[in-house]
């Protein structure tokens, strides 16, 4: 795990900034985001709409907290969980052969593909380093 405080700060800014931007872009068009979620064909429509209302706010709050260093370990843990779920969802979608936009950044979203798996894996690496830095800093 990375222990350099400047690298960890950079990780916090990258992960926090990405999730804040993603959350804001989804709040701008909640119905579009709900449709993007429904396109994955995993959640019932009612759950897609519920998640479309709740998930962006959780992303923004955790992202801003991570940037500001408030509740950074809890935020990093929650965002790591989001990323892990996203990675599974993306992988399953690719395996099923469903050709859709990811819905990550509203109308600016790209296709669900292996590049998205790589990007989310890097973000997961960053966020896990932030979370596990808690133990390294206190030792």
Low-confidence stretches: none
Mean pLDDT, all residues: 91
Q: Structural class of the helix and strand makeup?
A: mainly alpha
Sum up the overall morphology in one term: globular
Query: What is the straight-line distance between the termini?
Result: 14 Å
Q: Count the strands?
A: 0
Helical content, roughly?
A: over 70%
SSE run: HHHHH
Annotation field: number of helices: 5
Outline the biggest β-sheet.
none
Oligomer: single chain
Q: What is the strand content?
A: under 5%
User: How many domain units?
Assistant: 1
How would you describe this protein?
Helices cover 78% and strands 0% of the residues. The protein is mainly alpha-helical. It has one domain. It is globular, with a radius of gyration of 15 Å. The model has no long low-confidence stretch (mean pLDDT 91).
Topology, pairings included?
Elements: H1 5-28, H2 30-39, H3 45-68, H4 72-96, H5 114-138
Features:
139 residues, mainly alpha, 0% strand
Task: Provide a brief overview of the structure.
With 139 residues, the chain is an all-alpha fold.
């Amino acid at each position: 795990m990375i222990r350099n405080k400047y690298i960890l700060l950079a990780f916090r800014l990258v992960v926090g900034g990405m999730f804040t931007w993603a959350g804001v872009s989804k709040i701008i068009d909640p119905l579009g985001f709900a449709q993007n979620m429904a396109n994955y064909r995993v959640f019932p429509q009612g759950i897609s709409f519920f998640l479309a209302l709740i998930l962006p706010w959780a992303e923004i709050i955790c992202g801003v907290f991570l940037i500001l260093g408030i509740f950074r370990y809890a935020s990093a843990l929650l965002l790591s969980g989001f990323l892990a779920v996203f990675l599974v969802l993306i992988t399953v979608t690719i395996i099923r052969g469903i050709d859709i936009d990811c819905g990550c950044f509203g109308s600016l979203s790209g296709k669900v593909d292996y590049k998205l798996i790589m990007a989310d894996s890097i973000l997961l690496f960053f966020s896990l380093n932030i979370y596990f830095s808690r133990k390294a800093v206190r030792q």
